[in-house]
Recover the amino acids of this structure.
């Protein structure tokens, strides 16, 4: 471990390809990026750590376990231990490709919320070939949202865009069903009013579904409630998987097709690489008092490597402090009080 | 016009390629399918009708006009006249590729709602290669929905699946952020309870975003609120457009790529044809007392032809009567009263 620099702690048992892909990705992060990494997990399940330090624990949260109950009962699980390490200043950030709800719950319950933040949100990068990815939040932490929460999502997303892609004045869009401020649900119309009144955000107004993947929108950050965000992200993932499968089937239909595919696949490779979620670095849980990166369940070693890079960057560039300044610094007291009265996020059962 | 059979009335000025594509598509419906068709529009704007009958009117609703105001003020517009022709029994169904909100408003205000239906919904087919398309509703008529509305959307979608694809017992899914009944917004959880209690619907439970295009779900009909439905449909459309553009660019990168593309494109043609919205026949406005098909704004003559076929089929197979039986027949009186107390749909400004 590099002297003086805190490690990124990685849940060795998180994800469908754990521990092998996780250990391999962690090893690559050390070797290729020089980022100090520590694994956490039950030694007998992790096995060979490829020379990396392992912080032992005795429990694991399964992918399909109820998140709230898992975190309440499994106090010596890799997820809880990872979140505690960040809280206690022994790690700079945590990474898991495991149970998303349980990762959120561990981070929220162990690290707590940033002062002034009503609810944490999951921020997911959507590939935007030739440019930095577009950030969508909330991607599923909060099935129900208030207008103030959407405003805070905009602030938190802008902070991540700055930290992660160097976009110091990112353009923010509000996901709706038409560009005019009069279009959308009551939630969206109220949020539009809050966002339009901010001098500290470059608010573009409403954007539409077609502006998420492709499209002409200049939005670097797109805010929406966690229900819509989760549905639309999964729809795009499903469509990409379906289409790439159908195209590859046609490419392998017969010998003539295979020969032609041999010519075209290298020309499609840059597009495929840009769309590959393994390269974008996973989702970031924003609003908790620590850096928590959630990689997708089928993460490869490349995905873990990308997630560790994002986690280390976010910690180095003080993501948490920046969010604290943006959100707590100038939040209208009344709005904030309203938001906080709603109580903590009902994470269990998501 | 075939003797005794009511024509489909087509808005000659609706859509980006009107009137040429509309007239051409209408002509093809007569010639290729034997469906009687009448155009409606201002004669001086329609020009050559290719020998089709034209019902003259004096006004046109522009694509970007405010729907509510347009329908209130332009009483001699092609949209209003088309809806009146269906109401008055002079036409079997109407088709427009024009302003979606104005088409909805014209149909709702002139035809009225089917007895018992709380709100009309837009039902859009999503291609499902090798099978009948999956029907998604609401695709944008109602930005805010109640649980009873989602139940009625399921009933109306099931009626359309039967009429349009011969699926007499279609499987219905509820769009949410996880398969368990405990997942989702309060709206979705309540709707889940209503749907699960029905013996007249084959309810599969929750489905997710990834089950819309591709995916393993058996759902023939997917219900959601009009905000989520609109966002996710536009996201899928945008992604398809972006991906096909990017693939075609790679295919045309150089001479070698073009030659290989010449081999592969014919093998991709069946997939492209199945995904082409021009072949699926447009969206159907369900819940009004008449058949109204809304084709997309960039409709080609093929799209208009498909929309006319769907409109004629729905009228022949008594879609409106079937919805009336399903919805009004056994609706819980209390729920219905609750739904109706919400008043008419605020169509203006959508």
């Amino acid at each position: 471990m590099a002297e003086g620099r805190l490690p990124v702690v990685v849940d060795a048992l998180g994800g469908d390809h754990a521990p092998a892909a996780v250990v391999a990705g962690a090893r690559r992060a050390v070797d290729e990026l020089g980022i100090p990494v520590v694994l956490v997990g039950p030694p007998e399940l992790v096995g060979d750590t490829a020379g990396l330090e392992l912080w032992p624990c005795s429990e694991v949260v399964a992918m399909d376990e109820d998140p709230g109950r898992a975190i309440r009962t499994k106090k010596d699980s890799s997820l809880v231990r990872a979140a505690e390490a960040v809280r206690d200043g022994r790690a700079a950030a945590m990474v898991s490709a495991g149970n998303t709800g349980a990762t959120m719950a561990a981070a929220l319950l162990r690290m707590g919320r940033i002062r002034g933040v009503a609810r944490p949100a999951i921020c997911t990068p959507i590939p935007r070939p030739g440019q930095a990815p577009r950030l969508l939040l909330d991607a599923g932490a909060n099935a129900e949202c208030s207008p103030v929460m959407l405003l805070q999502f905009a602030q938190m997303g802008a902070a991540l865009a700055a930290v992660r892609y160097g976009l110091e004045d990112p353009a923010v869009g509000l996901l709706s069903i038409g560009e005019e401020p009069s279009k959308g649900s009551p939630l969206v119309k109220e949020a539009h009013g809050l966002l339009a009144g901010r001098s500290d955000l470059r608010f573009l107004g409403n954007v539409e579904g077609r502006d998420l993947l492709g499209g002409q929108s200049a939005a670097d950050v797109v805010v929406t409630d966690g229900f819509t965000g989760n549905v639309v992200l999964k729809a795009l993932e499903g469509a990409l998987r379906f289409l790439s499968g159908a195209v590859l089937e046609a490419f392998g239909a017969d010998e003539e097709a295979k020969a032609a595919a041999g010519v075209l696949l290298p020309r499609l490779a840059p597009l495929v690489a840009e769309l590959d979620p393994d390269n974008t670095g996973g989702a970031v849980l924003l609003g908790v008092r620590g850096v928590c990166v959630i990689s997708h369940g089928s993460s490869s070693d490349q995905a873990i490597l990308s997630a560790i890079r994002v986690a280390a960057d976010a910690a180095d560039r003080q993501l948490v402090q920046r969010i604290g300044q943006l959100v707590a610094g100038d939040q209208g007291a009344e709005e904030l009080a309203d938001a906080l009265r709603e109580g903590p996020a009902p994470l269990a059962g998501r």
